[in-house]
């Protein structure tokens, strides 16, 4: 049992500076209570990866991370035989054909490591949408039964089910089959009230009024038609920037000078400057 | 799980399916299992538990929320719903409205998640939303509530109350906050109206009409301003998704020849045995694109969106040239330079480009003119894409000019935003043109995305 109730989730995540709303608290709780993987989807920089880290930290579990990328395959995600060591062994001892498929020559990759782990484990499968479709097939098998078959060693079943978090930026639709096996959590941009609290939790030295102002400004920027809306991570960066510059107020001049922290396209910056009436540097 | 709860659960899942959410049997079971471990008295927990187990796409969430509010209403009206003509007939005193508007103004400056906010919306529906209907019955509408309180006219007053002086960034911030809160108030009113209708005449009756279609299924020709703005914000994420899919497909499709150097290099790690052959990637085929788009009022929303999408996808094509027309044609490629603001591009295009003489669409003249002025744009490697409804105000169609253009291009396609049954009605020349250039129905973003994926 990972958490007793959604309220407990909220409390324990807050203790590690992750502020959960109703949606996050309930799905994090359910993922633990039902033993199902949690798929967190949303734009970049809204705290998807951070959520997995916070769960691990709050429960004192070990975090195992599988970073997905194009071309990720079984050998990188699950396990691989150590060919070089096997070749050396056979060259040293021609009779060793039986021995070379044993524990000694097995290279454990994140998925196998998470399944064989005895201690509580949070398995983070990051940016699942970047991986190829075949990897999803591999994940399906592992995430539904939590077992792996290695032909030479037999079937390995999880003694203790890891807490699985998958993240996705939705650059492509994940397959229906994978989604069906997961609980789904859409992380979007927060309300200004919540964003203020997040900024204050991350940058406690920031004056409350400035945080409020920052959150409202970012909410207004997100309302504009931009190529890339500012993320929560960028809001926090902005807060740190202001702090580093020793500013206690966000007036037009400061805003125009530091807009590059949250808006990374030239056309977005000129649009924001136009709509908010900022001086162009 | 208790019997009544189970019944409600099954009916709710059924309603979600009816509204077009793909809820599988296994997901329904997951939801039922989730209900056994949560505190059912916590309504928001219940909502999120259902959402986590049943709703696997963000664009289905608004529809889900509307249905959830019907099946698990936040409050239940006291007593049996009685027709209360005396209440409805009670005249609204002028100062009563003024007082209520004061209260509303106060709430709009606060936090919309405050329970008092929704409670106020509910009581206002009770006060103004009842409209007598035929046969001693009553019905509920949101319009009289919003008309009586008219929150939009409070904006100026709220701005004065919140700011010491108007203008600049503070006003922009305050405006965002106020309009968000007004929208929340309107939503709360609409949601309570639906709840009351459901109480009076059963959930099933209202459920079917209360779920808005996801934004990528809304007809281009029926877009509201808000929806168009939302769509434009979706252009870049959509372009990114399409680009990823296209690249993935190209990689997957055909592999090239053996790359000897890399294969030998890779074999070093296996003691010189080439266990994994490496293949050379193929050079991707990137078509040249020429877009000819109808910029007249009736289909402008569709044309603009498609233009934005193709320019966001420009890396997928070697070259994109765009031309706009109403009754004459002009090149508009320059307005969509990389890094240019999309809204500006569209505005400048409509203001500066020479696309209209009399302002009535004339496809025939446009094709003739295009063939005269820009014949060089189309070559054997070009895909020609025509966007428009083929409604030419009963002018000559100039089929020959189009046939020549289509003949010179490598491919030609026509995207028509009108539903197929309306083709050929009135002044539409759909079939005549479709005989020369294959014409596709392209009513919403989903259809457009499917087409673009096939094209590139």
UniProtKB/TrEMBL annotation, chain A:
Pfam name, any one: AAA_5
UniProt-listed InterPro entries: AAA+_ATPase (IPR003593), ATPase_dyneun-rel_AAA (IPR011704), CbbQ/NirQ/NorQ/GpvN (IPR050764), ClpA/B (IPR001270), P-loop_NTPase (IPR027417)
AAA+ ATPase domain span: 34-193
Matches recorded under SUPFAM superfamilies: P-loop containing nucleoside triphosphate hydrolases
Family as reported in the entry's similarity comment: Belongs to the CbbQ/NirQ/NorQ/GpvN family.
Designated name of the protein: AAA family ATPase
Lineage, opening ranks: Bacteria, Bacillati, Actinomycetota, Actinomycetes, Streptosporangiales
TrEMBL record, chain B:
Upper classification of the organism: Bacteria, Bacillati, Actinomycetota, Actinomycetes, Streptosporangiales
Species of the source: Microtetraspora fusca
Protein name as it appears in the record: VWA domain-containing protein
Cited InterPro entries: UCP010256, Uncharacterised_CoxE
């Amino acid at each position: 049992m990972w958490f007793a109730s959604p309220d407990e989730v909220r409390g324990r995540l807050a203790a590690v500076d992750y502020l959960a709303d109703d949606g996050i608290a309930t799905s994090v709780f359910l993922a633990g209570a039902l033993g199902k993987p949690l798929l967190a989807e949303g734009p970049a920089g809204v705290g998807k990866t951070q959520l997995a880290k916070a769960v691990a930290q709050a429960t004192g579990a070990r975090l195992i991370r599988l970073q997905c990328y194009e071309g990720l395959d079984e050998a990188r995600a699950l396990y691989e035989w150590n060919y070089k060591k096997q070749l050396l062994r056979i060259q040293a001892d021609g009779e060793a054909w039986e021995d070379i498929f044993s524990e000694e020559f097995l290279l454990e990759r994140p998925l196998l490591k998470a399944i064989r782990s005895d201690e509580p484990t949070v398995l983070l499968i990051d940016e699942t949408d970047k991986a190829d479709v075949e990897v999803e097939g591999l994940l399906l098998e592992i995430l539904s039964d939590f077992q792996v078959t290695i032909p030479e060693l037999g079937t390995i079943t999880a003694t203790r089910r890891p807490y699985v978090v998958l993240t996705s930026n939705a650059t492509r639709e994940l397959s229906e089959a994978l989604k069906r096996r997961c609980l789904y959590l859409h992380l979007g941009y927060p309300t200004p009230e919540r964003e203020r609290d997040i900024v204050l939790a991350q940058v406690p030295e920031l004056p409350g009024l400035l945080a409020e102002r920052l959150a409202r400004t970012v909410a207004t920027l997100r309302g504009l038609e931009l190529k890339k809306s500012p993320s929560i991570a960028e809001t926090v960066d902005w807060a740190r920037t202001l702090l580093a510059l020793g500013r206690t107020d966000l007036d037009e001049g400061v805003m125009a000078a530091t807009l590059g922290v949250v808006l990374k396209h030239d056309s977005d910056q000129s649009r924001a400057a136009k709509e908010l009436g900022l001086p162009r540097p | 799980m208790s019997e009544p709860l189970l019944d409600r659960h099954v009916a709710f899942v059924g309603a979600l399916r009816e509204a077009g959410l793909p809820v599988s049997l296994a997901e329904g079971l997951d939801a039922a299992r989730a209900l056994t471990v949560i505190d059912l008295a916590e309504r928001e927990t219940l909502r999120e538990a259902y959402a986590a187990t049943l709703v696997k796409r963000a664009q289905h969430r608004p529809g889900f929320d509307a249905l959830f509010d019907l099946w698990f209403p936040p409050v239940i009206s006291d007593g049996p719903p009685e027709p209360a003509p005396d209440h409805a007939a009670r005249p609204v005193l002028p100062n009563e409205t003024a007082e209520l508007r004061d209260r509303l103004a106060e709430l709009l400056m606060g936090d919309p998640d405050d329970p008092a906010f929704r409670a106020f919306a509910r009581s206002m529906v009770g006060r103004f939303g009842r409209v007598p209907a035929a046969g001693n019955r009553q019905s509920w509408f949101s319009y009289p509530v919003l008309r009586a309180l008219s929150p939009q006219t409070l904006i100026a007053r709220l701005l004065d109350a919140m700011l010491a002086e108007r203008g600049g960034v503070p006003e922009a911030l305050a405006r965002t906050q106020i309009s968000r809160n007004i929208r929340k108030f309107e939503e709360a009113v609409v949601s309570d109206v639906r709840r009351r209708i459901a109480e009076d005449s059963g959930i099933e009756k209202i459920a079917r009409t209360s779920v808005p279609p996801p934004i990528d299924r809304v007809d281009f020709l029926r877009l509201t301003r808000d929806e168009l703005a939302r769509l434009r914000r979706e252009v870049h994420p959509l372009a990114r998704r399409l680009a990823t899919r296209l690249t993935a497909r190209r990689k997957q499709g055909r592999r090239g020849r053996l790359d000897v150097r890399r294969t030998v290099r890779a074999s070093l790690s296996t003691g010189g045995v080439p266990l994994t052959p490496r293949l050379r990637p193929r050079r991707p085929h990137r078509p040249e694109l020429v877009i000819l788009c109808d910029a007249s009022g009736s289909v402008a929303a569709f044309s603009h969106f498609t233009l934005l999408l193709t320019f966001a996808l420009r890396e997928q094509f070697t070259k994109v040239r765009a031309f706009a027309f109403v009754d004459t044609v002009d090149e508009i490629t320059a307005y969509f330079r990389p890094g240019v603001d999309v809204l500006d591009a569209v505005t400048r295009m409509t203001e500066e480009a020479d696309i209209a003489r009399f302002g009535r669409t004339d496809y025939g003249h446009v094709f003739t003119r295009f063939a005269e002025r820009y014949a060089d744009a189309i070559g054997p490697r070009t895909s020609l894409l025509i966007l428009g409804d083929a409604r030419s105000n009963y002018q000559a169609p100039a089929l020959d000019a189009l046939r020549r253009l289509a003949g010179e291009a490598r491919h030609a396609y026509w995207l028509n935003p009108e539903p197929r049954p309306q083709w050929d009605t009135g002044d539409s020349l759909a079939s005549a043109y479709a005989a020369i250039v294959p014409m596709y129905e392209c009513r919403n973003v989903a259809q457009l995305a499917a087409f673009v994926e096939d094209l590139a």
